[in-house]
Amino acid sequence: MAIRDLLLPLIGDATRTTMDAIEKSVAMAARLDARITALALETEQDALPPTVADVLGETQLVQTAPTARTLLTAFQAAATKCGVRNEQRLERSTIAGMIGAVAEEARLKDLSVVPIRSNDSFSEKLVERLLFETGRPILMCPETTADTLSATFDDIAIAWDHTAPAARAVGDAIPLLKRATRVRIVTATDRASDAQRGSSAALRRHLAEHGIEAQLDVLEIKGSSVGRVFATYVDQNVIDLLVMGGYRHSPVNEWFWGGMTNTIINDPPCWVMLAH
């Protein structure tokens, strides 16, 4: 199945880096010959219950009509430039309901393309809700490096640990993997077990059935975090897209990201495709 229908939520400030991320996201959609829907939400600064404000950051969720329309104007310019099939929508939402409105729309798309600000709590919350409430993958575009990102995913790395989220991410990424020039299956461990080596080899055989040739790489952690190890690998090998599973733990009804997921979401080293 091809990836043909994308959602681009337009939420936040109309900064230069946000504009770069919008333009690069549209260019990426054009390379995939996909339709991309820009959903901009304008809000009123309605009151939030204290617990919601603490979690989501009330001041970060205020989106005025001029800002939303500025983001849509930037999207229109990029869509015209790239000649991409597109739809543009401007809707109103309460602050508390804004992410939920995006999630509802995302359930009817192949994936959501999300511009990510580094170490931004709202970006993290948006990704979390889309990942666990839509049943669809997310493609993160780091705003700080958007102007230098490739719009084509020629070199793709798969972060593989034989978990269900990682398997789901691979399945969702098959259409992109088929188009890539090089695919790498990457495992991070200081001492690869026979089971880990066997799992990576089995994934390689599985991808070969789809006409995808992949190489196997093992990264040593050496006391670092897995997220930083992968970020270094991405930089050293000029990876265009990192495919990985998204994780969480829920003790006492509180949600916490797994270590690697948290590191990558807060500072994506390249385009990152997440699935759960």
Would you kindly provide a written description of the structure presented here, covering whatever features stand out?
The protein has helices at residues 16-31, 50-56, 65-82, 98-106, 121-133, 164-179, 194-208, 226-237, 259-266; strands at residues 5-10, 35-43, 86-93, 111-116, 138-142, 155-159, 182-188, 214-219, 241-245, 248-249, 256-257, 271-275. It has 276 residues and is an alpha/beta fold. α1 (16-31) packs parallel to α3 (65-82). The model is unreliable at 46-61 and 249-257 (pLDDT under 50).
Spell out the blueprint of helices and strands.
Blueprint: E1 5-10, H1 16-31, E2 35-43, H2 50-56, H3 65-82, E3 86-93, H4 98-106, E4 111-116, H5 121-133, E5 138-142, E6 155-159, H6 164-179, E7 182-188, H7 194-208, E8 214-219, H8 226-237, E9 241-245, E10 248-249, E11 256-257, H9 259-266, E12 271-275
Helix pairs in contact: 1-3, 4-5, 8-9
Overall 3D shape: globular
- Integer-rounded radius of gyration: 18 Å
CATH superfamily heading of the largest domain: HUPs
Which percent bin holds the helix content? 40-55%
